[in-house]
Amino acid sequence: MKINSLKIQGFKSFSNHTLLEFDHGITAIVGPNGSGKSNILEAIRWVLGEQSYSLLRSKKSEDVIWAGSPGKPRAGMAEVEISIDNHDKSIPLPYEEISITRRAYRSGENEYLINGRKARLRDVQEIGAIIGESFTFINQGSVDEVLLISPEHRTVLLEQAADITHHFKRRDETLKRLAEVEDNLRRVEDLLNDSR
Ligand code: ATP
């Protein structure tokens, strides 16, 4: 899975249509203070269905819409579109490229599209959860944080970054099923002993 591109228009400081194309490997976003680096990460969170406005450094839906500047009027709508390469079918949809769009209007209404079709927030969040397992977005300050946290917490972060968390989930599910099977076996043995 790979994020191919991000289109931003009217979201936070991005008043103009902005297209970011991503390559393979690590992507670093650099720029002067206040130039919108964090807004790019927030655009990714937002388009994938983020509902927590505090995580988006906002209070309400309208706050993410371009608020205007002396030379440029405010926007009526914020729109972000993310395109994901799905050749490996990590996302269980029959498309080789998946695009997710989120729009927010000043009325507070939000709408979601998957490959151009209206979609439910839940569907977008499910895709977001799969993408979240494959990518690590490191905010400013997180590097210091990583160095200061406990070794246990750091291990969890490294596991997430190495994309092995879902293997642990599968292992836990399998162990649970195994325990159920062993339980059933014990019950069968008890029944057999009782009938002897
Ligand atoms: P730093 O390096 O200082 O953390 P940064 O490059 O990460 O900065 P951001 O925090 O992404 O920058 O962007 C902050 C800018 O976004 C501020 O100038 C702020 O006024 C602007 N901004 C945020 N929301 C809106 C909005 N709704 N409309 C217009 N501008 C906005």
Describe the structure.
The protein contains 5 helices and 6 strands; from the N terminus they run E-E-H-E-E-E-E-H-H-H-H. It is α+β, with helices and mostly antiparallel strands and 196 residues long. The chain has a domain at 2-138: P-loop containing nucleotide triphosphate hydrolases (Rossmann fold, 3-Layer(aba) Sandwich), CATH 3.40.50.300. It has helices at residues 37-47, 121-134, 142-148, 151-161, 165-195, and strands at 2-9, 18-21, 77-85, 97-105, 110-114, 117-119. The radius of gyration is 22 Å and the shape is elongated. A 6-stranded antiparallel β-sheet has the order 2-1-3-4-5-6. Adenosine-5'-triphosphate binds at residues 12-13, 31, 33-39, 63-67, 140. It is found in: Cytoplasm.
Give descriptors for this structure.
alpha+beta; Rossmann fold; six-stranded antiparallel beta sheet; 6 strands; binds adenosine-5'-triphosphate; Chromosome partition protein Smc
Blueprint (SSEs and pairs):
Elements: E1 2-9, E2 18-21, H1 37-47, E3 77-85, E4 97-105, E5 110-114, E6 117-119, H2 121-134, H3 142-148, H4 151-161, H5 165-195
Antiparallel strand pairs: 1-2, 1-3, 3-4, 4-5, 5-6
This protein binds adenosine-5'-triphosphate.
Adenosine-5'-triphosphate (ATP) binds near residues 31 and 33.
